[in-house]
């Protein structure tokens, strides 16, 4: 634990770090700002009890003015606490595991820990994202987990199986795609590739054979809408384009007492861009009357990330995210399936994506194409395909990508609301592929929204702020974006393998999935509206980059999937496959 650790030794004394930067860089800039920042900062140092997220969003308990530096200071504290409490020895790590999850770690934990340590992995204890998905299977026991895996195997839809352990032919790897699985195998093959460096270590663990399915589509699919199926019945609930069947399945999964089940019937996703524009026109009218000019909030909007991603608590999400209109079938019961990400109501087990690993060179970070913060344009940037919605319907007003492109560009006539926001945005759709024309009514879409020719992904880094948006599934670009000198802004409902390892406002800026024009304007104003704002933007951009270089390397993905394999061995081979903590 050397490079990353020593790098963060500088960051962990951030009182000095921030202090010195504040005095050398900001003192000449603005006295008033410095005063506010210093007051907030000292306040923070001496008697600031960190606000928790519910307090942050509590309107009767508003955060101080100029909240950005305060949020950043709190987030930095949270990160430093996380770093400091990481285990240093396998005994510590095993006890921390037991403290968090109430059981012993899985068999091979010591081998895993030694490997993680040899690779300078710092966050050895942060596996809550993985465990949230794995614990339900550990609780049901290996017989039931195997039964469910068998049901999925019999009715696999766009998923392949990998085999682990057991007796093998001479030329077969310890972990290998099951013979005869002929689907497109990109995701399955990449997962096996991630495990290649530790095949030899796994070999020594000598487990009886087990297998697990890997999803070959971007969308998550595991729900628990019925809890089980009757003998001979299908495990899939069929969805049709744009109907509300998926919403009904999520309702059942969340349970009748959830806010989702109680309120979602009041929300519709059947509205077009026209309605979005009409709504803005009324809103602008209202604000012109109230304030005489368009006003954005003074700071980036507060986003309670956990709440924003909590589907069972947030029926409003169906009005602003395309997930709810997908026509992929979902399961009626929890089955073990590895996918790239899971919204909170889903039971998919997250694995790193092939895009984060190495698939599509275009999505990887290329330092030679990057610029320094100062050289970057004062622009918020996103270019991409019009994916991520219902297939075959035209209700673009509730698809997340379509909404974002709509609100960051001048609307077509007859709607007319000029805004200086557009001077700071470079957010358009790139080419419309024939595949999308089958899914959407393409001509109609190009009437409303700007399309520009596809440009290289590396163009993103010409801009100070880069947006990351979900597509049909989790975005493939996050690693490329957060690795750069740009400020990454993340808008997602997906829990990925690394979600609990980052701290919002220290490594990135969260943007609500239900973003409004005011919300986007707030981000622009907070980080491009003044020298102070740009300074704070550069701080988060640097921290995000350091995080990616220290915690989202390819070897970090290998270490994650290595540990996942230990957990899955216990899921399928039984609770006796545990690591006994030496007393
Ligand atoms: C909001 O804050 C007030 C005052 O601190 C408190 O009384 C109230 O319970 C809070 N409401 C919520 C929803 O947290
Ligand atoms: C649905 O919305 C209507 C109109 O705003 C409201 O009167 C009603 O109470 C809402 N119902 C639920 C279940 O929230
Ligand atoms: C959903 O399941 C049905 C029945 O197995 C199948 O025919 C259909 O192709 C599936 N839909 C998708 C989008 O895979
Ligand atoms: C937007 O970004 C593209 C690169 O992807 C660039 O070619 C174009 O000039 C930019 N547009 C503006 C208005 O800056």
Automatic annotation (TrEMBL):
GO terms for molecular function: transferase activity. Signal peptide: none annotated. Pfam families: Glyco_transf_90 (PF05686). Keywords: Membrane, Transferase, Transmembrane, Transmembrane helix. SMART domains: CAP10 (SM00672). The keyword Transmembrane applies. The keyword Cell inner membrane does not apply. The chain crosses the membrane at residues 26-44. PANTHER family: KDEL LYS-ASP-GLU-LEU CONTAINING - RELATED (PTHR12203), PROTEIN O-GLUCOSYLTRANSFERASE 1 (PTHR12203:SF35). Belongs to the glycosyltransferase 90 family. This is Glycosyl transferase CAP10 domain-containing protein.
